[in-house]
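To: structure subgroup
Subject: Chain for Friday's discussion

All,

I'm putting the inputs and outputs inline so they're searchable in the archive.
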Amino acid sequence: MARIGVTYLEVAKAADELVARGIEPSIRLVRGELGDTGSPNTIQRHLSAWREARPAAAAAVAELSPSTTLAIASEISQAAAKARAEVEGQLLQARSEAEELASVGEQLELERDELLARLVEVTTERDQRIAINQLQGVEIKDLQEAVERENAAAESARTAVAKAEIKLEMAVADRAEIIRLREELREQSERLVLANRDLAVRCAELEAAAAAHKVVLQQITGLQEQLSVAYEQKSKETHQLQTEVKELRSELAKVGGELSQARVAEAHATGRLQIMAEAAAKSEKTVTVGA
């Protein structure tokens, strides 16, 4: 946060210190007392107000009685104590809010880390699903190739049957061989039908499994995107809270500085009032002795 301009109390304190050393305050000298900081226009305005307040303070020394001066000093001390208590309360409240924000920021960081771990887990599961789908795709391709080979074998078997029938027709005398060949052909045909059925069932199962894996993969991808968005949101919230904690700590330091300035101003005012009371008492004593 940007530094707030110099206050009247800072300018008045610097001017009083210069007067105590016998030096007439000026804008340049007061700015030097403040560490070469502050706008000259602001210092000039506060310095003018300080100069206007000095004659009123001097007149008050001659006009007020010691009891009145002490009463005013008591009132000022009470007001300063009340103001100090309020500033200290604000300081405690600011510290409490800073601790609360820091706690919330730590909780958000934990949630963000958990989301990151879940994101890594989901990404790993997605990669495993992709690998499984690739393997199943290879297996489906192998089964399709096996079906093609079986079909080719069936075609060869049909060709062989046709040739065998021709041979059977040509070898009517060897009926026993014909019966054997026909039985063997029937068995081969039955085995081929069963194999084709098994291959069709296996292909259907693999295709269903591939479709299910595809749906799961889409769900995992959607969850991954949601987790990514949630992770980014938590990171933004954590960064915002950390920024607010920094700003609150800066405000806390500022309130502490203002409390210190108030204490210095209180001590300064109390000292001046004591000096005024002593001067008034001496003046009253001198008037009494003269009379």
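Points worth raising on Friday:
Helices lie at 8-20, 27-33, 40-63, 66-170, 175-290.
Residues 8 and 46 are 5 Å apart (CA to CA).

D.
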